[in-house]
Amino acid sequence: MDPVDSAFATTRRKDFLPRGVRHRASYDGPLRIAAGQTSSQPRTVADMLRLLDVHPGQRVLDVGAGSGWTTALLAHLVGPTGSVLGVELEPALVAFGSANLARTRRPWATIRLASSGVLGDPGGAPYDRILVSAEPDELPQALVAQLADDGVLVIPVAGTMLRIVNPGAVVTEHGRYRFVPLR
Hints:
Blueprint: H1 3-10, E1 31-34, E2 37-39, H2 42-52, E3 59-63, H3 69-78, E4 83-88, H4 91-102, E5 109-113, E6 127-132, H5 141-144, E7 147-157, E8 160-165, E9 170-176
Parallel strand pairs: 3-4, 3-6, 4-5, 6-7
Antiparallel strand pairs: 1-2, 7-8, 8-9
Helix pairs in contact: 1-3
């Protein structure tokens, strides 16, 4: 089985949604979670994870962790020899996502409150992979700078999914998508 398919099979979206929308977990579209944020469309998440090309043992940063679903999917992909840090600006979502993530029993993954005005986790860099689940108008160089050698960043920018590979910040485009704004 493809690693992304395996991650989806063991990490059900339903377990990361508020009770009121769990019945819609199989809907292939965004679902509201809290604080104006959404759980991304499953097909989009799968596309992003395939572009990210995560391997066991890697260090991954998940920007916009939300409900914890993408953090948990990434934790499955890196396995116990890797690590995943999810950062989230909304305190209510940090609590919700952390509780959801704890139920997966993947202690190599955590979610913490993002610092206002600071993108990602510059103090913890470099990262092998960075996933961003919110959309800026321009590619944030602050996140590109947090990539390790041979690192990959996947981010929707101004409606286009970008894959950035270090060194040299080689950018490729991978279709049109809509996301909540990156703050």
